[in-house]
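COMPLEX REQUEST
Ligand: iron/sulfur cluster
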Amino acid sequence: MVVTKKVVLRFPKRLVERPIIYRLVKDYDLEFNILKASITPEQEGLLVLELKGDQKEYDKGINFLVKGGVKIESLSQDVTRNEERCTSCGACITICPAGAFELEPETRLVIFNNEKCIACGLCIPACPPRAMEVHF
Amino acid sequence: MAKTIEEINRKIKEGKAVVFTAEEIIDVARKKGVKKAAQEVDVVTTGTFGIMCSSAAYFNIGHTTPKMKLGGGRTYLNDVPAYTGVAAVDLILGANALPDDDPRNRIHPGEFNYGGGHVIEELVAGKDIRMEATAYGTDCYPRRKLESWINIRDINQATLFNIRNAYQNYNVAVNLSDKTIYTYMGVLKPKLGNANYSSAGQLSPLFNDPYYKTIGIGTRIFLGGGIGYVAWQGTQHNPHVERTEKGIPKGGSGTLATIGDMKQMSPRWLVGTSVLGYGCSLTVGIGVPIPILSEEILEYTTVTDADIPAPVVDYSDAYPQAKPDVLGHVSYAELKSGKIKLKGKDVPTASLSSYPRAVEIAGILKDWIKSGRFSLTEPVELLPGVNSDITVRNFKERPIEY
Ligand code: SF4
Ligand code: SF4
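STATUS: Structure written out below.
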């Protein structure tokens, strides 16, 4: 299964000069998109990436980064729903791989559980009134 | 004892009309019995809120100085092309229209972030819209170019005119192939990964009057948050679909053409919509009142989700190839349970039309009627029914030979 995920990578000083992203591409066949990159005055690197690739390879790639000393955070806190625009249609329910959307049986309102969200981004273009938003 | 619309309107005027939504009436009839309920209840209100692609709006923007004939030229509203083939300052904008430079499906699936439906939503929201027009110029209409902001409050007419809305029943879409497909019924995951449906079921207008015994040309309705009318039968209106014992068609059948003044409407009930890999559209809120003229009509309004079967169709092959194959029928009660069984597999379901919003519409219409703000109309002519000779065909292709 192909996954697309957004992750924040924090590199310690010693890793800043190393070709880590190159390894992700070469060894794990992941595509990447740099969403944000910076080096702090303490020489710590920060990189916000969108990674796309096979789920298994993705997991291996992340593992490689963690072993190498890179700190990783997912961007899940940053997927939000614009409640004004959500019509509770339900199109997102079967799209979300994390089960973050839930149907309230009585009212049939669609509830968004932000804690379950893994920020895969699939619901964003799939939501017809475009109520789901990503923030960086 | 049969009632007339005139009698019901008298009660509405006196603030004495007894009104229930199509959801509430189910229990009312269960408790009181159909006979008693039919005597006591005057109106049942219905509602639906779904993506309705055959929606459009027309405008008269007023004459410019010097005058300009938009007809035959090109006009864009927020970069979305409007149809100008109608006189000098009239325009028609379709919900599916896309900016010329939208990438469409060049990178599949296209996102379709902004189109005609979004312009309609922004107009009713009272936002300024950027208009750019070019024309060829005539002696009586010399102007050739116009770039201006327009706003719904300044233009003469802004009329929503939807040529096919409120489909009576619809397909449940699934995907039998082994890759994800992007359809107007949403994203369909491979190998029966999900099943999408789009109907308010027991609340939906035409399920509550399955034989069109009260709804017709001139029926006053809730449309997009304002008051509208049924203008005509909708396109593809087909009364001759196989029906259940209770008269419920087992697939797409009746449709409505609706019309109303956009100046009364609100963006809560007309929502610009983007369908991944498919295009832009408009989500429309419609509510139709059903006058309880007889026991028979009351009985129709007591329809429940369990009584309504919907056909399951494969959108990877049967639908695009126009094959009549149906994988089976499931009821809206089953669909709303969250999963259905197909080919021995539990398939998760999702709706594309919003049931909570449909409930809200039926409730608003009920309040309007109870407060005397909304009275019923006698249709000039009912929609073509099962005895009409209407037929709906696929395109008859006759290749042109050179
Ligand atoms: S698809 Fe969008 S509008 Fe529909 S329920 Fe989900 S978040 Fe709300
Ligand atoms: S981004 Fe959307 S689809 Fe992905 S996990 Fe979060 S809520 Fe679910």
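REMARKS: The longest helix of chain B spans residues 355-370. The CA atoms of residues 98 and 115 of chain B lie 5 Å apart.
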